[in-house]
Amino acid sequence: MFSFEHWIEVLQANAQHFPQRAALHFLPDGVEIGETLTFSQLDEQARSLAAALQSRYTPGDRVLLMLPTSLDYARAFCACLYAGMIAVPLFPPPSRKPRHLDRVRNVVVDAEPGLILAPADHCEGLRELVQGQVDVLTVQQLGTPPASQWQPPAIDGSTVAFLQYTSGSTGSPKGVEVRQRNLIANVELMRQAYGFDEHGAMVNWLPLYHDMGLIGGMLAPLYSGMPCYLIASQTFVNAPSTWLQALSRYRATASFAPNFAYALCNRVVSDNLIAQLDLSNWKHAINGAEPIHPGTLEAFAERFAACGLNPLAISPGYGQAEATLCVSATPADALPVVLRLDKAMLETGRVALAADDAPAVEFVACGFPQPLHSIAIVDPQTFERCAADRIGEVWLKGPSNAESYWNNPQATREAFEARIVGSSEHYLRSGDLGFMHEGQVVICGRLKDLLILNGRNLYPHDIEFAITDAEPGIRTGRIAAFSEMDPVLGREKLVIVAEPQRRFVDPARHPALFASMQNAVREAADCGIDQIVLVEAGTIPMTTSGKIARQGARKQLAAGTLSIIAQSGGSLAACGETLEPKDLKRLVAETARLAPTACRQWLEQTLHKVNPYCSADFELSLVGQGLDSIGVADFAARLYNDLGWNLDTQDLFGERTLGQWALALEEFLRAPAPSATTSMQRADLQAGRQSFAQSRLWFLRQLNPDDTQHNLVLHLQLHGPLDIETLASRLNALVQRHGVLRTVYRDSVEGPQQRVLPVTAVALEQHDLRSLSEAQQQQAMRDRLAHEHATPVDLDAGPVLRAQLLSQDDQRHDLLLTLHHIAFDGRSAQVLLEELAGSADTAPPVQYLDFAQWEALHWSEQRIATEQAFWREYLAGVPQSLALGGSGRNPGQHSLDFKVPQATCDQLGALARDRGMTLFMLLLASYQLVLRQLGGQQQFLLGTDVSGRPLAQHADVIGFFVNQLTLRCDLHGEATLAGFLERVRDEARRAYAHQGLPFDLVVSALSPQRRAGHSPLFQVKLNYQPSRVTPTEIAGAQLTALDVAQAPGDFHLVLDLVHGAEGLDATLKYRGEYFDQDRAARLQHLWMCLLEQTRNLLDEPLPALAERIDGWDQAFQRERQQSQALAGRSQMMQAKRRSLSL
After folding, report:
1. pTM of the predicted model as reported, rounded to 2 decimal places
2. Same domain, 970 and 1073
3. Which member of 130, 474, 835, 1090 has the lowest number of beta carbons within 10 Å of its beta carbon?
4. Domain of 454, in residue numbers
5. CATH of the domain at 162
6. Closest Cα to residue 532, out of 520, 542, 522, 518?
7. CB of 481 within 8 A of CB of 291?
8. Over the stretch 257-276, which tens digit does the pLDDT of each residue have?
9. What letter does residue 825 receive in the DSSP assignment?
10. Mapping DSSP to helix (H, G, I), strand (E, B) and coil, where does residue 441 land?
């Protein structure tokens, strides 16, 4: 296929054919030749060094080349090839900073070299780094034995030629094994693509540890018999014009450079120098290694046309270290293809040419794949080929592809052994996003760097370019855009890390600089920057190929190791001076001019209380601000409590912007005073009516006094020197502060009542397990948990709170707190933990008994009748049961735990915000689709728990505030998934607008048929709650784990979701009479498949989507049956062997 099998044949053939022709020149100052090697001299000197290496080391040993660009580098690299050793190009550390030395250390650990070749001034530091485990020498210290002592090694095309270590833009260093055949194939196909031959010349300033600098800038010309002029990278950085001067002076025909180099020359090369340059011989101005911007190419061609530069010379290309180097090239007789794509379509992952007046983004095509190579565009989630108008991951196939990473089989399988669905051939996954256009590949960005903000796909290099193009205060090529999940915001935030020009280090210039950067991004991407970080020059992390390491910058920012000059955002939002309610009302009543500003300030400070990171955007809705359903409810409750403003919840989830809400607030404040039931005072009651929610649970207890389905057991795992006296004291203080924890429940002539008992000490029952073995301790813990779940809480006499402490040793403790749901809910758990950590010194402003009395006043007969009328109409005609088809063979309570990764949650959250819905609404829609598959019903009712804390005063009160909300599910029709999501959103908004009516009153309005073991109206629930920040220390010990367990009760199936920092923690609880283990596994599998692919299925009609889900289900069941059959056969064989052995 190719003329040579390995590189030794190449070098020796050139030494024989062109012995006196110059192979390499080194230009110390970037202009004048300082040293030259002919092909014959290169061959002889490389063999001499190879002999020296062979005398000390064995073939296959790794040699780290940490040399600056020089002819010594060329000698050393070629000597490794001659010696059969594996060269490992690596940059000399620019400093002794930890981040520079860590890079070297990581490669040394991975490659396990026998030798490091370095300049004399680096040797001592490197010896300290490797601690004598590796030889560190200069090239001169190897000596120069006669070339005749060299012994040809036993190598062929499969021999590893060198390791190209790459961190990429996103990951840890990995060594690409570039084999002789890969290297030969790549340089031969480059020679054909660009027409390299002995009549041309190459100028190369790229570093030789860079794949483009080494392979494209040095090895390709050596292979083609053309002279190469080497310039040190620092020389180019100091004076970019030296590159063009060398091209002009030596009549060079080719040079490789990344986009930023062309942009830099556009700015810094003077008109006087342009008049002296002759670039007419430059036939291949190859642009690659980073995103290519059309404006840069056009400006370069236009500016240097006066120098004789032919526009046809501009040659965009695409390459990868894992593909040796070159993947695609633009033909020499073709102008670059610039595509103007529809911006809105692009953000959905589609490709469409933009209309003349439509917002657009421009991309440059990167040429055609090399001969014998192919490119596929593949969906990175499903591994299916993408449609022609879809952006996908670029997959590569051909002889240039490397085959593995050094000592990294897992990464090898993931990158080099990918298969397209329906094909058995291996492809290389590039990690790049792109598409094909008329045979050329177009690169959009890195898969791992893709920004998904507000449901839109944005490419970091577009944002980076927009900033540097509009703002001269930021250094070109020294800026990183990335996103990260903020658990407080509940969404991805956009972060910019950038190095300012020297004159912009002055703090006085930062406000204008920040504003300019924000404007540039809003103009280019229609989004704001959440955090801007300015860092010292030269400190943004780079990859080995000279690209910005965006994920490296993200990690350093998180670790606090960036050299920060200044930043904007990223910390708690400033809200300015706080207004009091009386001041707001006075300003609105007395000063018409200041009223709008005062209302905006009030909403901003309220938003800040709900989300301390949130900087109010008055052009966005509440959902657009990043609030979920709990945040919206909190926002409404604060306005309700502080101002008596009772907002329509359905409107809160709508499209009305914060600015429009400010106008509505002004209008409300000018209206007559609100109802007296919009606030409450503490009355220090000791007895009174039960709340509606309490009455429901109390009634269930009367039906079955031994029932424990509403027991809540909190299991706190504590590690450290626990102060048991302090713990006991805080438990006592907790019960003293919250009367509901010492309340009993009884009937009376006035209906179900509750009575607060006098304060008594909590009986902290202690169990010393120190004398038991670890296995016995674990069994004791399981027994104790089972006992707590099975022992009813005495609602008639108390105590409502039981506390037990099990100590395994002095450092390991388990605290079990058992309560009845009648006195406790999810928010109560957070309050309890905070107070056990010592955060509360005073009693809450109101007690739960105050809430129960307020509730009775709030729900007047007229208000109840109005709400019940809504629920009768909303739920009319929908079946009140959902048959799930369980086997019933294993009755009792069961559960299945699994996790939805944070990456999936991020994508779903972005999609939800784009659709104007909360993440819960999106999860609800997908859950309905899976339930239809399992039960076959098109219509049914579903339940969810909602917070029943209507006033901000209730926020820190322990008690049972949860209400149950009934949601209508309708999967009829031909709507697409996108349309179905809108349907679910709208139905949920309608229900949430009426969520306040206690569930028992909803049930009484519909008078459903009651059945034992069946909850009225619905038997399936979906609960979602964001994680709360939990304290880490309780009474001197660290809280290492927390579990809150409760049975499913009368519900057949409950899916509880808790959103934590690492994703959704899901617990599927079910009763074996109505559901089974097999269906639980199917539900998990189908739901996960649907969540991962929701964004890609938006255009699919519901019937087709049902068929797709059914296909997933059938395949999963077949696989599960096969696995069970294999396991059964294995058990039979083991049984036979045991019987034979007897």
Report:
1. 0.50
2. yes
3. 130
4. 449-531
5. 3.40.50.12780
6. 518
7. no
8. 988 788 888 877 888 899 99
9. -
10. strand
